[in-house]
Task: inverse folding
């Protein structure tokens, strides 16, 4: 099974805010999954989705 990262962990790894990560998710440019049931569900980002986003948005060593 693929590792799932919390929004806070993605923000920490990318050195950005959690809100920025949520914005990417809500815009549909970063894949996420909901874990748990309705009242206690939480958002996780598949590790491969986080890596794919960085690879797709990095140009010559700089994030676009």
Result:
């Amino acid at each position: 099974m693929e590792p799932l990262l919390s929004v806070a962990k993605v923000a920490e790894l990318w050195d950005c805010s959690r809100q920025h990560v949520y914005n990417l998710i809500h815009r549909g440019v970063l894949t996420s999954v909901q874990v748990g049931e309705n009242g206690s569900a939480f958002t996780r980002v598949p590790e491969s989705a986080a890596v794919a986003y960085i690879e797709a948005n990095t140009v010559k060593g700089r994030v676009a």
Notes: The chain has one domain: 4-59. The CA atoms of residues 57 and 64 lie 5 Å apart. The chain has three helices and five strands.
